[in-house]
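Page 37, continued from 36.
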């Protein structure tokens, strides 16, 4: 049921695991990130969204979210095609845990 909810969200959404492997991408995110299929073939969160010169920091901050949880103000410096993006994160209390990343599109 949660998968269907995430797939039909009105904003770009992707779900990734502790290792950054992307598990699910909704249609809006596929279009924004120019990827095909709901389940990219072992695509990595960091390859798609981390600034090239700050991948180490992004990975560290990402792991912190998994280890310590996320707050309302949680933020990672992410970008698409070199442009900064705003995101919101939620951890799914599943086993194993998964991170939902919602991308806010600026109009």
């Amino acid at each position: 049921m949660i998968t269907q909810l995430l797939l039909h969200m009105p904003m770009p959404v992707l779900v990734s695991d502790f290792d950054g492997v992307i598990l699910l991408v909704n249609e809006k995110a596929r279009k924004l990130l120019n990827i095909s299929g709901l389940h990219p073939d072992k695509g990595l969160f960091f390859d798609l969204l981390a600034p090239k010169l700050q991948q180490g920091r992004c990975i560290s901050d990402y792991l912190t979210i998994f280890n310590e949880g996320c707050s309302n103000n949680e933020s990672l410096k992410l970008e698409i095609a070199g442009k900064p993006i705003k995101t919101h994160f939620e951890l799914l209390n599943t086993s194993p845990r998964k991170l939902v990343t919602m991308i806010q599109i600026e109009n």
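Helices lie at 2-7, 27-33, 45-49, 55-68. Flag for discussion at group meeting. The domain at 2-104 is CATH 3.30.450.20 (Beta-Lactamase).
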